[in-house]
Amino acid sequence: MKAHITVLPGDGIGPEVTAEAVKVLEHVGQAFGHTFEFEEALLGGCAIDATGTALPDETVAACQEADAVLLGAVGGPKWDDPTAKVRPEQGLLGIRKALGLFANLRPVKLFPELLHASTLRSEILQGVDILVVRELTGGIYFGPREEAGEDGDRAYDTMLYTRPEIERVVRLAAQAARGRRKRLTSVDKANVLASSRLWRRVTSEIVEAEFPDVHLEHILVDAAAMYLIRRPAELDVIVTGNMFGDILTDEASMLVGSMGMLPSASLGEATNAAELPRGLYEPIHGSAPDIAGQGIANPLAAILSAAMLLRHSLGLEREAKAVEDAVAAALADGYRTADIARPGEHAVGTEEMGAAVRGRIR
């Protein structure tokens, strides 16, 4: 296979972790006989500094022409003013819209060697393997909004959803559940929000009509937050709206002990003859400016995001599994970055962890 991948290193630790993910992809290409071409582009704070916008037109074009996009992180203290007209996060939201990405997949799978890294008891964590599917293009992040009042002392953000937006993300989530344990949990706030009542009704219709073999459960978002801590191993696939998914996946990261372990894939409709989607792949940990440039960031979430890129956008399941197995092998052999190391345990740096993974790809 020959594939073109656009890399958006971004801000903070983004360039450090994406560099290791690219090295892993290059190694996979050599080991399995593929040719991966990489092109870097600007997004986020670095793009603001260089061009005055968080999402330059050149970046949009590079991403639209690519087979897949690998992203590091955006944001940092330098651009932290929430009242600024141009903010790094606008670049992230913009590229998702430009690529038509409507579903964010966030797997939460616990490696046995990292039971100690979570603050929860090990017996609660046994068997945790969750896939959260978060809707990306609708909801409160994109609905009508305004700051109003004579002194700007009143504001509103609107949680708006339409039937087509709900249908497509629920279909994707139900299809994923069908390939796992056939359990789908839909999270909403239907006891209060009209948009959630629509969400619940449409979800029920789609699953009952098209996925009768999938067991559907509806729960409220506050209950979902509790279940993630109390009985996470019972959850299989979760599908939810934009804001709820944003919050719940950050909570879920603590099940595995560190955001540095969680990858993600943002997918749209199929874009090629193989019916594979162009996707945006990124770790969920953010830019971590407090450790940027120190060479100690955990690259595993970025590397696991690269594995998702191989699977979802390139259709290379064997290669994706090889990367995931290599990550598991490195952890089993005792490699730990500072965020997942026990007190007093030796911690390796970003590059050493990346090399440990590459050396175990079979």
List the helices and strands and how they pair.
Layout: E1 2-10, H1 14-32, E2 35-40, H2 45-51, H3 57-65, E3 68-73, H4 88-98, E4 103-109, H5 122-125, E5 129-135, E6 145-148, E7 154-157, H6 163-178, E8 183-188, H7 194-210, E9 215-220, H8 221-230, E10 237-240, H9 242-252, E11 265-270, E12 277-281, H10 300-312, H11 317-332, H12 350-358
Parallel strand pairs: 1-2, 1-3, 3-12, 5-10, 8-9, 8-10
Antiparallel strand pairs: 4-5, 4-11, 6-7, 11-12
Helix pairs in contact: 1-10, 1-12, 6-7, 8-9, 10-11, 11-12
What's a quick, concise take on this entry?
This protein is α/β, with parallel strands linked by helices. It has twelve helices and twelve strands.
Overview of this protein structure:
- There is one protein chain.
- This protein is an alpha/beta fold.
- The chain is 39% helix and 19% strand.
- It folds into two domains: 1-104 and 269-362, 3-Layer(aba) Sandwich (Isopropylmalate Dehydrogenase); 119-255, Isopropylmalate Dehydrogenase, CATH 3.40.718.
- It is built from twelve helices and twelve strands.
- The strands form two sheets. Strands 2-1-3-12-11-4-5-10-8-9 form a ten-stranded mixed beta sheet, with helices on both faces. A two-stranded antiparallel ribbon has the order 6-7.
- Helix 1 (14-32) packs across helix 10 (300-312), helix 8 (221-230) runs parallel beside helix 9 and helix 11 (317-332) packs across helix 12 (350-358).
- The mean pLDDT is 94.
